[in-house]
Amino acid sequence: MKPGLLQFKKASQIANQLDITCWIGYSGKASEADMDERAIYIDLNEAITIQQFWSLFFHELAHVWCYDHDKYYIYHNDALPHKQLGDYIRRMGLRIERYVDKVGKKLMKQYFPRMRYLPAYKSKTDVQFYKDWVKTNYPL
Ligand SMILES: [Zn+2]
Question: What range does the domain containing 11 cover?
Answer without folding.
Answer: 5-137
